[in-house]
Amino acid sequence: MSAPAIRISGRLHTGPKQHIADFDITLPSRCWSVLLGPSGVGKTSLLRLIAGLPCAANLVGKITAADGAPIASHRVAMMAQDDQLLPWASALDNTTICTRLRGENAQKERATTLLAQVGLSGLEHRKPAQLSAGQRQRVALARTLYEDRDIILLDEPFSALDVTTRQSVQDLAVRLLARRTVVLISHDPAEAIRLADAAWLITPAGITSCALPSTTIPRNAAAKETLGAHAALLNHMRVLFAGETPRCGA
Ligand SMILES: Nc1ncnc2c1ncn2[C@@H]1O[C@H](COP(=O)(O)OP(=O)(O)OP(=O)(O)O)[C@@H](O)[C@H]1O
C-alpha cells in the first residue's frame, strides 16, 4: 500500500468568480485530513479535482502526490455527497458495481461482510428505494470501502446517520482505512475533532490549519481534551465562517 501525502496549491475559481484565494496545503500520508468550510466555498470541488473528476471550478495551481506518481483513478475511491446508487441494483450489487464495471469478478463474500459491518446485514438484496437515506449512505460507504484504494475521498459520508450509528460507522471506517490517505469533508466540528489527524478551515480568503488534540483517532468524544477542542473549533468556525465576535473561554 502506497498512500501518499497530497499537496494542493493555487487558487480556486469558476470563471471570473474566485472561490478560494491562494493556498498551499499538504494533506499528510496515511492520515485523516478533514476539510471544513461554509456551504459553497469549494470543498466538493477540491475533492473532485483531487479525484481527477470533471468540476465546474478551476484550480489555477497544482495537485501532486508526494511519491511523484500521478493520482490516477486506480489509486482513488471517492464517496460523493449523494449516494449515487444504481436504482435497479441490490445493495450487494451496488457495493461491487465498480468491480463489475471493470469486468472483474465481484467478491460477494467480502461485500456481504462489509454490508454487515456497516449494519446492513439481511438487507443485501434490497434495492435503494427499499432503504432509508441512512441505509443508502451506508451502502455507498461499503462500496467505497470495498474498492480498497490508497486515497479515499469522503464527501459528508456520515451526514444521514443517527448519532450512535454514526459513531460506530466512523470507528469502523477509521479501522478499515488505516494506512490510507483519507480526505473527509464535514460540516460537523464534533466529527472533525473525533476523526482528524489534520484539519483545515476553508474560507474565500484561503485555507488555514486548525489545532487538534495530540490523542489518536477516533478520539473519545467525552474526553476533556476532545470537548475542549470541539468548543474551540466551533468558536473558530463562527468567527471565520460567520464573522461573529470570538467568545471568551471557548
Ligand atoms: N455546475 C456549476 N456551474 C457553476 N458553478 C458551480 C457549479 N457547481 C458548483 N458551482 C459553484 O462552485 C462553488 C463551489 O461548489 P462546491 O460544491 O465545491 O462547494 P462546497 O463547499 O462543497 O459546498 P457544500 O458544503 O454546500 O456542499 C459554489 O459556489 C457553487 O455555486
Quaternary structure of the protein: single chain
Q: How are strands sequenced across the largest beta sheet? A: 5-6-7-3-8-9
Low-confidence stretches: none
Number of strands: 9
How would you describe this protein?
GO terms for molecular function: ATP binding; ATP hydrolysis activity. This protein has eight helices and nine strands. Helix 4 crosses helix 5 and helix 7 crosses helix 8. Strands 5-6-7-3-8-9 form a six-stranded mixed beta sheet, sandwiched between helices. A three-stranded antiparallel beta sheet has the order 2-1-4, with helices on one face. The protein is 34% helix and 23% strand. Strand 8 and strand 9 (206-210) form a beta hairpin. The longest helix is centred in the last third of the chain and has 19 residues, at 224-242. It has a domain at 1-75 and 181-245: Rossmann fold, CATH 3.40.50. With 250 residues, the chain is of the alpha/beta class. Bound molecules: adenosine-5'-triphosphate. Adenosine-5'-triphosphate binds next to helix 1.
Relevant terms:
Rossmann fold; single chain; binds adenosine-5'-triphosphate; six-stranded mixed beta sheet; alpha/beta; globular; about 250 residues; ATP hydrolysis activity; Putative hydroxymethylpyrimidine transport system ATP-binding protein; ATP-binding; three-stranded antiparallel beta sheet
How are the SSEs ordered, and which strands pair?
Blueprint: E1 6-14, E2 17-27, E3 32-36, H1 43-51, E4 58-65, E5 76-79, H2 91-95, H3 97-101, H4 108-117, H5 133-147, E6 151-155, H6 163-176, E7 181-185, H7 189-195, E8 198-203, E9 206-210, H8 224-242
Parallel strand pairs: 3-7, 3-8, 5-6, 6-7
Antiparallel strand pairs: 1-2, 1-4, 8-9
This protein binds adenosine-5'-triphosphate.
Adenosine-5'-triphosphate binds at residues 14, 19, 37, 39-45, 56-57.
Domain ABC transporter: 1-229
Protein name: Putative hydroxymethylpyrimidine transport system ATP-binding protein
Family: Belongs to the ABC transporter superfamily.
